[in-house]
Amino acid sequence: MKKKNKKNNLRKLIIILLGVLLLLAGAEVGWIFVFSPQSDVAIVEEEEELIVAPFFVRMDSLVIPVIRNNQVERHVMLTLTLEVGDNHGRHRVQKAVNRIRDAFVLDLHGYMRVVLTRSREDFLFLLKGRLLRVVAGVIGPGVVREVLVQQVAEREVL
């Protein structure tokens, strides 16, 4: 009777071990399907679809008078485009474009005579940074990514 009992216990142990091995194999297969490199590629492709190309808002040209010794010495014409990150930002900028334009003219009215004494590279760098701060003050930080200077022209007053 003891031999039969031992055989039954051994069979039960073998069946239990086989069951555990089958469960582990099933878990491994599930793990491979869920976390395989192919699913990583699918996740990366989904993330790439979420990346949105920037939007651009073109502004009318600004004419800034440069005043020295209580006289208009020259006019500086700027053609600017504002780069925004998403469609919502573009709508915010388009709604506020007149306020932004007024803020640019007001801020640059006194600043232009100082910045024009610099080299062209310094002028553009300082001007873009200044305009970015001004637009952030009007519609909030982070809406406009970059102020793109499309054209700069100067004309002396005769």
Largest sheet: 4 strands, antiparallel
Report mean pLDDT, rounded to a whole number: 81
Number of helices: 5
End-to-end distance, in Å?
A: 124 Å
> What is the strand tally?
4
Helical residue percent? 55-70%
Query: Cα-atom Rg, whole angstroms?
Result: 34 Å
Structural class: alpha+beta
Based on the structure, what is the oligomeric state of the protein chains?
Answer: single chain
**What fraction of the residues are assigned to beta strands by DSSP?**
15-25%
Please write the string of helix (H) and strand (E) elements.
HHEEEHHHE
**How would you sum up the global shape?**
rod-shaped
Low-confidence stretches: none
Explained architecture:
Helix 4 packs antiparallel against helix 5. The model has no long low-confidence stretch (mean pLDDT 81). The protein starts with a helix and ends with a strand. Strands 1, 2, 3 and 4 form a four-stranded antiparallel beta sheet that branches. 60% of the residues lie in helices and 24% in strands. A hairpin with a 2-residue loop joins strand 2 and strand 3 (71-84). It is an alpha+beta fold and 158 residues long. It contains five helices and four strands. The protein has helices at residues 2-34, 37-50, 87-95, 97-115, 120-139, and strands at 55-58, 62-68, 71-84, 144-156.
